[in-house]
Amino acid sequence: MRVKEIKIIIADDHDLIRQGLRTIIGLEEDIKIIREVENGKLLLEGLNTHEADVVLLDVNMPVINGLDSLKKLKESDPKIKVIMLTIERFDSTIRKAIDIGADGYVLKDSAGTEIVEAIRTVYDGEKYIDKSLVTMLFDQMTTKDHQESSLLDALSRREVEVLREIARGRGNREIGENLFISEKTVKNYATGIFRKLGVKDRVQATILAIENDVESYYRKLYGEK
After folding, report:
1. Residue-wise pLDDT tens digits, 14-66
2. What b/e readout covers 83-92, taking b as 16+ CB neighbours within 10 angstroms?
């Protein structure tokens, strides 16, 4: 168990959603809700007096919407972690949130365990995207044509293998076990992949991998599943 509690703020205009999150998080000894608000204006007004580690932020909120609130949060305190919590599955909304600086993107109908996993993941400095969203984005790519050349051409075979695993939502330890390499080696590969692709983190790498259909790319070059 963690020595330090993860302090979170819930920003959502639906009472039932806040109640559900309160129930889920109440089962976790290392996570504490320090504040709940129903719109972006209230969230931003009280930010300086509440030292939160993570904010669960609804995309669609009154007064100041989630994306605008996200931008202001990151401008005010770049270190604060923000997970976008939403029912929206539109890839354009996901992309906007990631571009602004969201640390995670989770669907409201996700299992409680996934929401808790997202909180702990972003608190530890990693990025998180809902596993069902990754599947959806991959499915969308099957209907799109792909260019002969790809940004993935800059990667070695092993780097493509690591990128596939990242895009599937797997952590460094699990990737290492699947590819029979150490967790440290996975981290080294990930750093090189991010540099070559011009991305900052795992979420951006995941989106880029999906946009370039890394699964089909790998099968086409190496003939393996």
Report:
1. 999 999 999 999 999 999 999 999 999 999 987 776 689 999 999 998 999 99
2. bbbbebeebe
Strands (E), 28-170: 31-37, 54-58, 81-86, 104-107, 128-129
Domain ranges of the chain: 6-130, 144-222
| Helix 214-222 × helix 157-167 angle, to 10° | 150
Tens-digit pLDDT profile for residues 65-93? 999 999 999 998 889 999 999 887 666 78
The one-letter code for the residue type at 205 is: A
CATH number for the domain running over 144-222: 1.10.10.10
Residue 148 three-state SS: coil
| Domain 6-130: assigned CATH number | 3.40.50.2300
Question: 25-52: string of b/e by CB count within 10 Å (b at 16+)?
Answer: beebeebebebbbbbbebbbeebeeeeb
